[in-house]
Amino acid sequence: MTSKKKATTEEIKKNFGFDEQSEQAFKSILGVKEEKANMSEEIQTDTKNAVEDTIKRRGRKKLENREKKKRYSLTILPSIYEKAQEKAEKEGKTISELVSNFLLKYSK
Q1: pLDDT band at 67 (very low <50, low <70, confident <90, very high)
Q2: What's CA 51's distance to the chain center, in Å?
Q3: How many CB atoms are closer than 10 A to CB 27?
Q4: Contact, 95 vs 81, CB < 8 A?
Q5: What percent of the chain has pLDDT over 70?
Q6: Contact criterion met (CB below 8 Å) for 30 and 40
Q7: What stretches of 1-108 show up as alpha helix (H) in DSSP?
Q8: What pLDDT is attached to residue 66?
Q9: For residues 88 and 52, which has the higher predicted lDDT (pLDDT)?
Q10: CB atoms within 10 A of CB 7
Q11: d(CA 32, CA 17)
Q12: Would you say 88 and 76 are in contact if contact means Cβ atoms under 8 Å apart?
């Protein structure tokens, strides 16, 4: 039996031709914790600000005068549901939209 020797970091760099930029990318993929410790304060601040901006801007802005939808359950024969689902798919709509449109017309 032959035992395989684990390659050192230097051997990996030499064999695969890592330069400084690709080494940093490699470390980030592996999640090397040293890299974060070596980051300058400016980069850490920029990263923190970018994350905060992303969190604050998540989702679409709420419309002020928009009526909220309420969820209801309906009992429908499977054959009717299947036909409605086929029609909705052809029209690019959902069953919910079909039911809403029907009830809107019915209530007028």
Answers
A1: confident
A2: 15
A3: 16
A4: yes
A5: 56
A6: no
A7: 9-16, 20-30, 33-38, 41-56, 78-91, 95-107
A8: 78
A9: 88
A10: 11
A11: 19
A12: no
Name the token pair of 8. 């050192």
Identify the burial level of 26 via C-beta atoms within 10 angstroms of its C-beta, where 0-12 means exposed, 13-18 middle and 19 or more buried: middle
Q: Quickly tell me which residue has 């395989």 as its tokens.
A: 4
The confidence score (pLDDT) of residue 97 equals 92
User: Is 99:74 a contact under the CB 8 Å cutoff?
Assistant: yes
| 3 φ/ψ angles, rounded to the nearest 5 degrees | -95, 135
pLDDT band of 56, cuts 50, 70, 90: low
Q: List the structure tokens of 14.
A: 């030499």
- pTM exceeds cut of 0.85: no
